[in-house]
């Protein structure tokens, strides 16, 4: 397969305001390499970060997506205003990803995290009332459970699941039907030594294995509590994080696409390195495209 629909998913350096110029330069190279999208967490501050506008300014055709904007940290009014400001300058290039976030992140801002599904429904209702609003085709929802997947198919362009194995992609496609977008994030480690690769993977996974939304989803997929604790079993680590040489990463991308993914966004994990993983982006692009 050539010209696979693949994007990049970023956090860390991407969100560091002191490295904004560098981030914009890396985004321009990602576009030149052939990636179709760049997904970035919106963080947990109030409103929509200026980062998205800067990255749109630095690129020409690349889709810039929020992966994701927390509905607890930006009001529907703030979100609609920010979206339309970006869309006026860069029509159709900003994909608004919304998510219900997680209890610890929400409660850290002195809010009560409860009924996230109902909160999302209410938020989408409020968003639909804004003038101008956000077109469904430029809206996508973070989703894990079956109800949120169905909501994503009904009220947005589709779903952007995070921290999921290929088996989840199969189930998500069955749940949402064939028309909805399905764009999973896939963590990758370009390292063929199992001990080193899994250590990097477990360091990344530690936070997510402490969050009930993710662990409940893993339980539904057949991973029991013993496999989730203590950094995760090898089986779990290998299911969530693709590691090995470039060919191994390409194989995982192809598995997601065969399972029904519309596109796959790769989060390159480079351990404790403070650098943007440009070498990995380049090596992967040469094999993917």
How is this fold's topology laid out?
Layout: E1 6-10, H1 20-33, E2 37-40, H2 51-58, E3 63-66, E4 69-70, H3 76-89, E5 94-99, H4 103-107, H5 116-129, E6 139-141, H6 146-155, E7 158-159, H7 166-176, E8 181-182, E9 185-189, H8 194-208, H9 212-220, H10 225-228, H11 234-240, E10 241-243, H12 246-259, E11 264-268, H13 278-288
Parallel strand pairs: 1-2, 1-11, 2-3, 3-5, 4-5, 5-6, 7-8, 9-10, 9-11
Helix pairs in contact: 1-2, 3-5, 7-12, 12-13
Distance between the termini: 8 Å
Rounded Rg:
18 Å
**Sheet having the most strands:** 9 strands, parallel
User: Could you state the order of secondary-structure elements as H and E?
Assistant: EHEHEEHEHHEHEHEEHHHHEHEH
Corresponding CATH architecture: Alpha-Beta Barrel
Category from helices, strands and their pairing: alpha/beta
The average pLDDT value, as a whole number, equals 94
Total strands: 11
CATH class: Alpha Beta
Quote the CATH topology.
TIM Barrel
Given the C-alpha coordinates, what overall shape results?
A: globular
Tally the structural domains: 1
Q: Please, what is the CATH homologous superfamily?
A: Luciferase-like domain
Approximately what portion of the residues adopt beta-strand conformation? 5-15%
Share of helix among residues? 40-55%
Number of helical elements = 13
Low-confidence stretches: none
């Amino acid at each position: 397969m050539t010209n696979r629909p693949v994007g990049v998913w970023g956090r860390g350096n991407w969100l560091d305001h002191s490295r904004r110029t560098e981030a914009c330069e890396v985004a321009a190279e990602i576009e030149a390499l052939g990636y179709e999208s760049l997904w970035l967490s919106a963080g947990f501050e109030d409103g929509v970060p200026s980062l998205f506008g800067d990255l749109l300014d630095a690129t020409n055709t690349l889709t810039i997506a929020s992966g994701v904007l927390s509905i607890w940290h930006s009001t529907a009014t703030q979100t609609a205003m920010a979206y339309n400001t970006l869309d006026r300058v860069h029509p159709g290039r900003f994909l608004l990803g919304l998510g219900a976030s997680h209890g610890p992140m929400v409660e850290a801002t002195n809010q009560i995290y409860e009924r996230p599904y109902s909160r999302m429904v209410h938020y989408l209702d409020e968003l639909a009332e804004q003038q101008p609003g956000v077109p469904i085709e430029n809206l996508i929802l973070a989703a894990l459970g079956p109800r949120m997947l169905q909501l994503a198919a009904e009220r947005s362009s589709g779903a952007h699941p995070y921290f999921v194995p290929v088996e989840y992609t199969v189930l998500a496609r069955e749940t949402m039907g064939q028309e909805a977008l399905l764009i999973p994030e896939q963590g990758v480690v370009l390292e063929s030594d199992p001990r080193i690769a899994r250590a990097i993977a477990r360091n990344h996974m530690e936070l997510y294995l402490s969050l009930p939304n993710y662990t409940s989803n893993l339980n539904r997929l057949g991973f029991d509590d013993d496999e989730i604790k203590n950094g995760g079993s090898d089986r779990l680590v290998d299911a969530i994080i693709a590691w090995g040489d470039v060919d191994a990463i390409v194989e995982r991308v192809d598995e997601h696409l065969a399972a029904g993914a519309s596109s796959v966004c790769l989060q390159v994990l480079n351990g404790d390195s403070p650098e943007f993983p440009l070498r990995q982006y380049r090596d992967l692009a040469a094999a993917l495209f």
